[in-house]
Specification:
The chain contains three helices and 22 strands. By secondary structure, the chain is mainly beta. Strands 17-16-20-21-22-19-18 form a seven-stranded antiparallel beta sheet, covered by helices on one side. Strands 1-8-7-3-4 form a five-stranded mixed beta sheet, with helices on one face.
């Protein structure tokens, strides 16, 4: 893409090959700044044109993505509302053309900007209590609206459809809503005593459907056995994948050994806890989201209402074709913070331990 044709808003891969017509050496200033104008990266270099008469500036997406990650705050993973995942990219040829673009984070070869949900999954199966951030691409958009519809079974057995409209804030790059079952029931004013059957989230632009996600309720998987992973997807926004299979916890003792005087002792012992989580059967959409999770720069596990950062250390994934059954994968991970590898198990007994309902000794005991 020629520098003069660079759009005002792009996904970062659109800046991977910027061409500048030149008859001789040119000096190009490349700078990246945040929304406040503070400079994150700045470089000035001299380039010579190739045989085609163009200077080619390549792989700027890596600089953009790295700059966006420096601005990311992990504590906002489950925050709702508008959010940014971009920076300002400026390429200036001394004595020549100049272009500035609002560059959005993207580490896949995706360059099309249109109203959409920033996810690969359009059909989701949700477990009660599962966190479910859903993000709408709003950069440069207008006329967007979200329609949340939910189907309920009433106490008397009848069916009811409840609907709510949400107006996204398009002032930043994305708008995040929390679409877990509790939020859906609250937003759609669930009838008392009713059961949520399924719900649909529809994105419209100027009254026309632009995208849609269907949510079904998984009543077969026990919430206690599911592992919910929240990660930064390739759009640079939070997403959730759930592993419904077996979870194997393993301990390994890492330490050095040496002599202290005449004694052979263990030095710097560290008990490392790893988990091998199995996904269970995956649809094609879910499998691609899991691949995204495997390579994410930020990944967390959701435990007891808290997010704890993890590091993926091993992946067990293979696909055989043709196949007559869904695919599954396994991921080995450990807590990123050493203190979380083994949680202390301290539960004070606050009951009436000193009072015996049935005395353990009778009057003959001496």
């Amino acid at each position: 893409m020629e520098l003069s044709s660079l759009p005002s808003i792009i996904f970062s891969p659109s800046a991977d090959d910027i061409s500048i017509p030149a008859e001789g050496d040119v000096v190009v200033d490349t700078s990246i700044s945040d929304s406040s104008g503070a400079t994150i990266f700045n470089n000035s270099s001299s380039y010579s044109p190739g045989a085609d008469g163009y200077v080619h500036i390549a792989e700027l997406s890596e600089l953009v993505n790295a700059a966006v990650l420096t601005l990311f705050k992990p504590e906002t993973m489950l925050a709702k509302g508008s959010r940014s995942a971009s920076c300002e990219l400026k390429v200036d040829v001394k004595g020549g053309a100049s272009a500035t673009s609002h560059a959005l984070y993207m580490w896949r070869n995706h360059t099309e900007l249109k109203p959409m949900f920033a996810t690969q999954i359009r059909h989701r199966s949700v477990i009660e209590g599962q966190p479910m951030p859903v993000n709408v691409l709003t950069a440069g958009m207008s006329g967007l609206s979200l329609v949340l519809g939910a189907a309920y079974r009433l106490v008397n057995g009848d069916l009811a459809w409840k609907q709510a409209t949400i107006e996204p804030d398009c002032s930043k790059d994305y708008f995040t809503i929390l679409a877990d079952t509790d939020e859906v029931k609250r937003a759609t004013a669930a009838p008392t005593g009713s059961t949520l059957l399924y719900y649909v989230l529809t994105l419209t632009q100027d009254g026309k459907q632009a995208d849609c996600i269907n949510f079904s309720i998984d009543s077969k998987t026990r919430p206690s056995v599911a592992n919910h992973f929240i990660y930064l997807n390739f759009f640079g926004v939070p997403e959730c994948v759930t592993f419904r299979g077996k979870d194997v916890e393993e301990q390994e003792l890492d330490s050095d050994f040496g002599y202290a005087g005449r004694e052979y002792v263990r030095l710097d012992p560290l008990l490392t806890e790893s988990h091998k989580s199995h996904s269970g059967w995956l649809t094609s959409e879910e499998r691609h989201a899991v691949y995204d999770f495997m390579s994410s720069p930020y990944a967390f596990v959701h435990i007891d209402g808290e997010l704890r950062r993890i590091t993926i250390t091993e992946v067990d994934s293979s696909i055989s074709r043709p196949a007559n059954e869904p695919q599954s994968v396994a991921v080995t991970w450990r807590y990123a913070e050493e203190r979380l590898m083994r949680q202390p198990f301290v539960t004070p007994d606050t009951g009436s331990a000193a009072v015996f309902a049935h005395p353990p000794f009778d009057k003959t005991f001496s």
